[in-house]
Design brief:
By secondary structure, the chain is of the alpha/beta class. It has ten helices and twelve strands. It binds zinc ion.
Length: 331
């Protein structure tokens, strides 16, 4: 009987999930490069020894220098594909590893790189990674994204750091908090390529909640910081293709619309009218009803303009609205 109940509950959940997941068609421009089934990844030279790699969901890059490879990030979803991609185009050993930021879904595979390599990151990334070793952690670092503890950075910086190896150069810069404190800009001036992870999602609405940005104001500002660099291609960390300047401009405009509409929605939705219906006895219920109504209004104002231009707009705009509304209220 218990088992039957569980099966019925499972079916109900499945059915309700299916309803929730119904969504508008994804524009063709959202999809990334085709991934060959046999290899499971694509590696392509962007320019002058700088390569990008994707398995379809994440993007990362590496640079051959004549004196060793500089690799940036190690998404655990790649498995050992980064090593294979590097071996496919060069015999140089990996001598330098850069972490874009501390999140395990982008660097949790870094233990596959040589121990002898130099690991470079922002000081805050090191601080955060040091928490990997906290004994009171509920879950080991990277556990739910297929990663595991990674080598701690041996070289750190606060504002900027120029890495010169062989005939190549990368400029690492920190411009303040956004997605996660410690999330850096990695700039290859000669190749006109910028890597900045988890801000721009080319062709798509950003990941849920402004891509879990810790600092909403900094996240929004990062679009202008990205555009202040002279670049042709942006390695943005997702979803299987490179971003162009135009992709950044498009997402910036979408974000500006969300901010405008969040402001409008805050003026349109009447808190006291909602309080009149919900009452003041349950504060959680009152604020949930109010903030949900404001977010919904903001999404309703934003979606028609963007639904045909970016993938997932109908899925996550309300959630972005919520984050922006909270920032307008308190930041
Ligand atoms: Zn991240």
């Amino acid at each position: 009987m218990m088992r039957l109940r569980l099966i019925i509950l499972g079916l109900v959940c499945l059915f309700s999930t299916a309803i929730t997941l119904a969504a508008a068609p994804v524009p063709e421009s959202a999809y990334g490069v085709a991934i060959p089934k046999d290899k499971g990844y694509v590696v392509e030279e962007i320019k002058d020894g700088l390569y990008w790699v994707t398995e379809g969901a994440y993007t990362a890059m590496f640079l051959t220098t004549g004196k060793g490879v500089i690799v940036v990030d190690a998404p655990p979803s790649f498995g050992d594909k980064m090593l294979k991609a590097i071996a496919e185009v060069t015999k140089e050993p990996i001598t330098h590893v850069i972490y874009s930021h501390a999140h395990a879904d982008h660097i949790g595979g870094a233990s596959m790189y040589p121990e002898t390599a130099r690991y470079i990151a922002h000081i805050e990334t090191k601080n955060r990674l040091q928490r990997m070793n906290d004994v009171d952690r509920s879950f080991p670092y990277g556990m739910f994204v297929g990663g595991k503890p990674v080598p701690l950075p041996t070289g750190t910086f606060e504002n900027s750091y120029t890495l010169k190896v062989g005939n190549q150069e990368l400029r690492l810069e920190y411009k303040g908090d956004d997605h996660e404190p410690g999330n850096i800009y990695i700039y290859a001036e000669k190749q006109k390529v910028l890597m900045k992870v988890d801000i721009v999602f080319p062709g798509w609405t950003p990941f849920k909640g402004l891509a879990i940005a810790e600092d909403t104001v900094g996240y929004l500002k990062a679009h202008d910081v990205i555009l202040s660099y002279d670049f042709d291609k942006l390695v943005s960390g997702h979803w299987g293709r490179l971003a162009s300047r135009n992709d950044v401009e498009i997402q910036k405009q979408y974000m500006q619309d969300i901010q405008t509409n969040a402001g409008k929605a805050l003026q349109m939705v009447d808190f006291y009218a909602i309080a009149g219906e919900v009452g003041y006895a349950n504060t959680a219920l009152l604020f949930e009803t109010y903030l949900s109504a404001v977010s919904q209004e903001c999404a309703k104002l934003t979606e028609p303009e963007w639904i045909d231009k970016l993938g997932g707009v109908d899925v996550w705009t309300k959630d972005h609205c919520y984050k922006v509304i909270m920032a307008i209220r308190v930041d």
